[in-house]
Amino acid sequence: MTTSHDICPECKQAEGVPLIWGTPPAEAADKIERGELVCGGCDIWSSVCGVVMNRECRACGHQWHVRENA
Ligand SMILES: [Zn+2]
Q1: pLDDT at residue 39 in the model
Q2: Is residue 7 a part of any domain in this protein?
Q3: Above 90 in pLDDT, residue 68?
Q4: Is residue 23 part of a domain?
Q5: What is the rounded distance in angstroms from the CA atom of residue 70 to the CA atom of residue 65?
Q6: Residue 41 to residues 9, 17, 33, 52, 63: CA-CA distances in angstroms?
Q7: What residue spans of 1-70 are helical by DSSP H?
């Protein structure tokens, strides 16, 4: 598993961590505790603007969207 973080477009620091919405899966609890994952709460953005922010910067709190090619 990669531990590299995404570069924040705001502050240019490699502090971007996956941001998930709704109820996090059980296996995500550890990551959330270690700050490797952020849970954004209820899924409002997907229905409002069609784009789900899926990264959050741990340094400045900026949220942005990256395309996942999984
Ligand atoms: Zn940032």
Answers
A1: 83
A2: no
A3: no
A4: yes
A5: 15
A6: 22, 15, 15, 12, 13
A7: 29-34, 45-48
20 pLDDT above the threshold of 80: yes
How many Å apart are CA 52 and CA 45, to the nearest integer? 6
Ligand 1 centroid to residue 19 C-alpha, Å: 13
Range of 30's domain?
16-64
Distance 51 CA to ligand 1 centre (A): 19
Task: Give the Å distances, CA to CA, from 8 to 24, 35, 66, 70.
Answer: 23, 15, 11, 21
Q: Model pTM?
A: 0.70
How far away, in angstroms, is 7 Cα from ligand 1 center?
Answer: 8
Per the domain annotation, does 1 fall within a domain? no
| Ligand 1 centroid from CA 6, angstroms | 10
